[in-house]
TrEMBL record:
First and last residue of the signal peptide: none
Protein name, per record: Phosphogluconate dehydratase
Pfam families: ILV_EDD_C (PF24877), ILVD_EDD_N (PF00920)
EC primary class: lyase
Cofactor details (free text): Binds 1 [4Fe-4S] cluster.
Source species of the chain: Sphingomonas aracearum
Catalytic activity: 6-phospho-D-gluconate = 2-dehydro-3-deoxy-6-phospho-D-gluconate + H2O
UniProt pathway: Carbohydrate metabolism; Entner-Doudoroff pathway
Residues noted as binding [4Fe-4S] cluster in the record, renumbered to the chain: C155, C222
GO cellular component: cytosol
Amino acid sequence: MTLNPEIAAVTDRVIERSRPTRAAYLQLIADQRDRNVKRPQLGCANLAHGFAGTDEDRETLKAGQAINIGIVTAYNDMLSAHATYYRYPEQMKVWAREAGATAQVAGGVPAMCDGVTQGYAGMELSLFSRDTIALSTAVSLSHNMFEAAALLGICDKIVPGLLMGALRFGHLPTIFIPGGPMRSGIANKAKAQVREAYAEGKATREELLDSEIAAYHGKGTCTFYGTANSNQMMMEMMGLHVPGAAFANPGTKLRQELTRAAVHQLARIGWNGDDYRPLGLCVDEKAVVNAAIGLLATGGSTNHLIHLPAMAACAGIVIDWEDFDRLSRTVPLVARVYPNGNADVNQFEDAGGTPYVVRELLSAGLLHRDILTVAGGDLADYGRKPQVDDAGTLSWVDPGASGDDAILRPAAAPFSPEGGFRILTGNIGRACIKVSAVERDRWVIEAPARVFTDQQAVLDAFKAGELDRDVVVVVRFQGPRANGMPELHKLTPPLGVLQNRGHRVALVTDGRMSGASGKVPCAIHLSPEALGGGPIGRLRDGDVVRLDAEAGTLDALVDAGEWDARDLAPAPPPEQGTGRELFALLRQDATEAERGASAVLAAMGW
């Protein structure tokens, strides 16, 4: 199938804009591959330190002939998605030996759970945990002991941070190894209903807790289609998984064999292997565009409007929100997964999952097939579904027709002819909005503003009945430089309640919403942010704000002269405690949201 001309044009735009930085990046990884110190060249004392902690693999490492895989793990047993990684390193070492290779845990990275910190002070560390993970990954891979890397991470900031760090070692062949989603608990829609009931005082805390425990009940990724599961879809679209690895459940034979296959494949594509596939060449402009297309076609997380530009930048690639906007107007929405539908990711997988989406988009000319993948072929491999037979043999088959057309539809008969994202611009700034879960009659909201500087104040105003009307809730000083850009997920239930009561409601913020953001229109990631002079600082209670996702505008309907003459609201003092003061250096140097909201990127000159 011929590539869609608009996708070709956007890709060409990304390639041209990235030309100087991509060339510099490719030179960097070539230098590291050819001129950097290699393991056999390390001094004897250095080498001895490098395998002093090993027993069974010591002689192999001493000989220096076999590929040594560096495992970077985000294991902890407080985060359900990462608790699955407990035994992975020891299993992977066995599977590496099967393939004539060795493996060592190169290091660990922090993995916080946004589900635990939502609405509390720890959430202000969340976004910059991504930069911390990137730095930790770099430390892990800095020892010149490895010819390939395996990245064990799944959730919100962990996958972006791992990839950002690993791309600075882009000469190493690298595969992401997921752990899979937990089995389905109560339906996500039922969970949301209990949350809204609790927000109205119609459910007790005990009822709410029981509901949440029924939803989040075991090891594995949460089952809604938020940032964590969007991560997994994107790694498939970029060809960085073993094909179809994203959504196999933990503890299954299929999950085990996919991980085993990843280790064996690293031995094949490693530094000294027969089919060298370095990460920095796999992650090219076409792969980045594929990730954006997959995100739009499935109604994925808005967080990736920050993460994908940051990940791409670490490979010398520049993608911006205009690229997302143009792609969104071309790419059809082919999946309905909560919060964009009623299904969870297990039902999505049963209906055909990511392999179905890849196959459909490829057949419609909506993806780049010709990318260098870790699997050894091209993207068509990712349009096939993995299975294990009774003998334990792993194979891949065509996913067939959709198993449920309420969840997955062909590209020729989608849920919507467009994806789920729009840019909004106006006198308040430049923001983005996820519209795939928003009813079309809510795409335009015009109402008086109520302005806040923190999430709790919104919740207090809701409980006091002060928001029980048509309202645009404005929450400012939530940007990356102000307080680390926390997600404002706690606002979803009360805003949903107001909308259910028949009010015209929207949110405008320089902060983030969760990957689980849903039916209420939200203009998020507003840039420039309030700290430092963004025009959102001019808004006052009672100003009429118009959010128009149809036209792509976001404006305060205030006389231009008055608007320009207004003083900016003063910034609240920075909060202390919960380690927030330790992240001040990262906050003060962060790039704007559209450029990745990252201090690491700022240090690189982005």
